[in-house]
Design brief:
16% helix, 6 helices, elongated
Length: 447
Amino acid sequence: MALLAPASLCAPSCEGQGYDQGPDTITWTRSDEPRKQANRLRGPQNGGIVRYSVDLQHPMQGLPLRIGEVHYMQSGQSTNFERATLTLYANGFSVRLGEPQNGDGEAEELSIAWSPFSLVQACRLHSIKADLASPSLRLFKVSVFHHGSTHFFAVEGEDADLERTRWVADVSRALRLFTQSLFFPFSLSVEPVPGVIGTGTRILAGYLLKCEKQDVMLVYGELHAHQNSRAEFVLYEDESCANPLLPFGIEVETPVSEHVAVDCSCFTVDCQHFTARTSAEKALWLRAISNLKVKMRHVMENPTPEDLQAYRASISEYIRSLTPEEEDAPRQKPLLPKRRTERRPLMKAMGDCQSPQVTRTKSLENCDTATAINIPKRNPKGRKLTCLMGHELQLLSVGAGVGYCCKRCKAAIDDGAQLHRCNLCDYDLCLPCGTQAPAPHIVSLGE
């Protein structure tokens, strides 16, 4: 029999309850000697971009981690709670609704596979009146926000609070192990890579998972110290930093946010969504970015080599405070199927376009990246317009509903207008900015 949920449940709010993971939480070892990292590269060196296929319909793997009776409602699909059996797996969960009547047929069953861009948290009904109407219910929600899929669960009884706490802890632990299975063992780094000049102003680097439409991409993120009121954040294929994928700048007004949930390691920088290996590493990335924005807000001078060493020492101290494990502990098999088997053009790696060929302008409704007109443009001084990584910009016409903005003046670029763009790096300049000054570049200690 269905349990009616109040209409106001559509927007539940977090109760602010956080649950510690206890001694079972896994974190990988961080080296106390970052300078040794260059001799211990353990990622996918020169193997191409690592992408994992993400699909809600992936089959469940392994034995159930937990099975229990709950009330269930899927957001946007129902306004009633139904009695159901919740089964938790290493890579997702299944919900078996009710029981078949008179022994005929089969009970409806729904399976949802994890994405690393998922979260779990305790929640409540939206109003005091709704809470009073269902005083025995204790709610929690599981959101696979990568796909916009949200699921509400409720438990009841004398031990409902404890039961909910256990469910939230078990789901968050499963999500953490799932996410960590997608990473290669690595050590967070603060030192530049020997021989790679572009890493000269690095203050923090490490692997991150980047959210794509249908994939998750394993990238090596590198945060630089501020230079001229801008801090560069560059993504590479791996920790050798030989193959840059996507650079973008962080400025005072650049939006940075995090997803608040139990042991959640997801955060967003300038509309790019990332997941760190642990929530502690997420906190480190956000703290480093926040400190840079404070310095830029107060228009502090560019850091000297001594300043850079002080920044690195402070971050290294935080890294050493993280709980280590044995560095050579066996790594769990990835709980998502890999999509990469060989190196592909970076343009295809960074978007869902099916062809990187240069063509005449066409509609962009079904393409992540703009399609270039094959006429290179130069500014009045004769210099080639380039992105941060030195790729020559192409003249584009913006399709309907794409929503581009200039990386320099931050102005929105209207549908149908032209712009200068690097498809590889997702870097755009409006026509006025493209004709006024040469494109910026990454500043390193060697310059």
